[in-house]
Specification:
- The protein is of the alpha+beta class and 149 residues long.
- The chain has two domains: 29 residues; 112 residues, Ubiquitin-like (UB roll) (Roll).
- Helix content is 34%, strand content 20%.
- It is built from five helices and five strands, in the order αββαβααββα.
- Strands 2-1-5-3-4 form a five-stranded mixed beta sheet.
- The longest helix is centred in the N-terminal third of the chain and has 24 residues.
- The protein is globular.
- The termini are far apart.
- Bound molecules: FE2/S2 (inorganic) cluster.
- FE2/S2 (inorganic) cluster (FES) binds next to loops.
- FE2/S2 (inorganic) cluster binds next to loops.
């Protein structure tokens, strides 16, 4: 009986959360957004109907983005550099970013919602790891930290 207020409160929060998600999906229209992707020196653009996370559009477009958590924002592997239109870094992303990455507008693609035209750079993680090995500075814990030159 002592848990009843907690259960009721959680149910109310759950209902509010579901209503907000439904309202966001049905009422908010971000229109057509252009995503410009720079990868390995090549630039490509495609248009999408806005409102979904950047990661889902990139995967749909055939880009290979590291993601071991399936877009839940818990692995920190889906880093991309947003050069235009990504908005603010979210608190859920901060723990995965070094100071340098924050300064260079790195974002987690799964947490970055496409609301307008956006321009991104997908880092070549394989080359980053190769360079670490070449320089004999490989650190398994830092393999996903991106150094922007
Ligand atoms: S896919 Fe895991 S944090 Fe983005």
């Amino acid at each position: 009986m002592a848990f009843l207020p907690i259960v009721v409160m959680n149910l109310i929060l759950l209902v509010i959360t579901i209503l907000l998600i439904i309202a966001d999906r049905l009422l908010v229209n971000y229109g057509t957004c252009k995503i410009t992707v720079e990868k390995d020196g090549e630039e490509n653009s495609f248009e999408v109907q806005g409102g979904q996370p950047l990661l889902s559009y990139l995967i749909e477009a055939g880009y290979e983005i590291n993601s071991s958590c399936g877009g839940r924002g818990t692995c920190g592997y889906c880093k991309v550099r947003v050069t235009e239109g990504g908005g603010q870094l979210l608190p859920t992303e901060e723990i995965f970013m070094s100071r340098a990455e924050k300064a260079n507008n790195m974002r987690l693609a799964c947490q970055c919602k496409v609301k307008n035209d956006i321009r991104i750079v997908i880092p070549n993680f394989l080359e980053i790891v190769r360079e670490m090995v070449r320089n004999r500075k490989f650190d398994a814990k830092k393999r996903w930290l991106v150094t922007i030159k």
